[in-house]
């Protein structure tokens, strides 16, 4: 095991080239002063007759969308009325531009006060010192309403460094008609890994291989069927208080996970090694695959499913009956710049964005806390009932570190060797441990 350390982000080089271009994009450069107050200091006071600006940066698909722009304006007015002497400015760019631009804004010293942080970018932002430690300015009760697994996605060295804003989850989709053909109860979907395997193999046998029992999406080139593994007590790494990382895949949960995927291989679609989650979803819509673990994109991308009655939804099957529920979750957080000139007010703005009054009304995704979810459009739509039950248990299979993507890729490689190439489970685990240790030691 080895402790991770700071690394120079590639965006720093880009920032040198683009700093002049972005000079007007972020909040005022004076906020970078060494004398800027911390979140634990006294509240900032604007000079008489002058309003201090707080800049929020997000992507235009929400900030300027006619469905949400009026709500952002409502939020702005409420914040300014409660914080005299301050004004809020909303800045945004389209998704394709935003992904790059907000990284460069920080690297070049033109960061906004409050901003959307993309979940995959969180480790780099936290490690680079871009994010304010929210534990230093908020009490523990400020975090209790967020879903625990989603909240953990924004922790760095045990500290809360962003507030969860949106999230998602995967559920089990299954074909009731095919269940009937295979002699299975269409109102009793599999609840455990063993039942999932039994049902998948039975479906493939009963349909003479014309219908795949379970949709495998190895073509995604990410942790395959990760939602299954998160429906256990397992984690693929552990991180101690000093930042030391230890692989934890030589466990009963991970061995059984590999055994499950291997045993279900006869139930996969013939092209399972090249299918991604979108293609698997399409095959499910075409009734060529009986069960998939997927998100709402299945109906979003397949019009025929929107009014279909042949399918049902259920919670992701668990490791065993006593295991916790689980599913893979992602989403966006709301971060506060560590260099904000008005950090106290910036934290207040971040809290308002994730509050029950505004969270569900300022974006199209699922809110990441109980109160906002309860008043969202998803809570009253029957199509999302299972998602609402599942999403509270969403999490990721490893704590956030700088090596998240590399470790995820290592899992994909080793699992593929076991399923496709027939590598033994014991050797697959050794292969994965070696990959993980190499990633950690070389960074």
UniProtKB/TrEMBL annotation:
An example molecular function term from Gene Ontology annotations: maltose binding
GO cellular component, one term: ATP-binding cassette (ABC) transporter complex, substrate-binding subunit-containing
Signal peptide, first to last residue: 1-23
Entries under Gene3D superfamilies matching the protein: Periplasmic binding protein-like II
SUPFAM superfamilies xref list: Periplasmic binding protein-like II
GO biological process per UniProt: maltodextrin transmembrane transport; maltose transport
Protein family (similarity comment): Belongs to the bacterial solute-binding protein 1 family.
Protein name: Bicyclomycin resistance protein
């Amino acid at each position: 095991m080895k402790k991770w350390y700071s690394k120079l982000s590639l965006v720093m080089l880009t920032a040198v080239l683009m700093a002049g271009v972005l000079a007007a994009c972020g909040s005022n450069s004076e906020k970078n002063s060494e004398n800027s107050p911390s979140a634990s200091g006294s509240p900032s006071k604007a000079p008489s007759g002058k309003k201090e600006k707080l800049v929020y940066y997000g992507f235009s698909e929400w900030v300027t969308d006619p469905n949400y722009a009026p709500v952002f304006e409502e939020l702005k007015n409420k914040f300014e009325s409660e914080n005299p002497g301050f004004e809020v400015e909303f800045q945004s760019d389209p998704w394709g531009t935003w992904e790059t631009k907000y990284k460069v804004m920080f690297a070049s010293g033109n960061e906004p006060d409050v901003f959307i942080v993309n979940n995959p970018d969180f480790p780099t932002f936290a490690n680079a010192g871009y994010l304010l430690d929210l534990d230093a300015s908020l009490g523990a009760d400020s975090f209790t309403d967020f879903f625990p697994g989603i909240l953990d996605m924004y922790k760095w060295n045990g500290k809360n460094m962003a507030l969860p804003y949106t999230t998602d989850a995967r559920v089990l989709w299954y074909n009731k008609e095919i269940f009937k053909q295979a002699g299975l109860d269409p109102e009793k979907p599999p609840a455990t890994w063993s039942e999932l395997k039994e049902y998948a193999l039975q479906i493939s046998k009963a349909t003479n291989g014309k219908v795949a029992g379970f949709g495998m999406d190895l073509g995604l080139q990410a942790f395959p069927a990760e939602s299954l593994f998160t429906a256990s007590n397992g984690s693929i790494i552990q991180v101690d208080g000093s930042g030391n990382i230890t692989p934890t895949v030589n466990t009963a949960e991970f061995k059984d996970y590999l055994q499950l995927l291997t045993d279900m291989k006869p139930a996969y679609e013939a092209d399972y090694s090249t299918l991604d989650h979108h293609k698997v979803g399409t095959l499910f819509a075409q009734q060529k695959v009986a069960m998939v673990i997927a998100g709402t994109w299945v109906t979003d991308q397949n019009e025929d499913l929107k009014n279909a009655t042949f399918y049902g939804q259920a919670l992701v099957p668990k490791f065993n009956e006593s295991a916790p529920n689980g599913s893979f979750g992602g989403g966006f957080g709301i971060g506060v710049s560590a260099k904000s000139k008005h950090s106290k007010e910036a934290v207040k703005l971040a809290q308002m964005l994730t509050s029950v009054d505004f969270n569900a009304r300022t974006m199209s995704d699922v809110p990441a806390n109980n109160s906002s979810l309860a008043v969202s459009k998803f809570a009253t739509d029957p199509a999302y009932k299972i998602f609402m039950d599942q999403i509270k248990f969403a999490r990721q299979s490893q704590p956030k570190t700088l090596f998240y993507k590399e470790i995820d890729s290592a899992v994909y490689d080793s699992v593929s060797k076991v399923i496709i190439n027939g590598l033994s489970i014991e050797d697959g685990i050794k292969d994965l441990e070696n990959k993980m240790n190499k990633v950690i030691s070389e960074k």
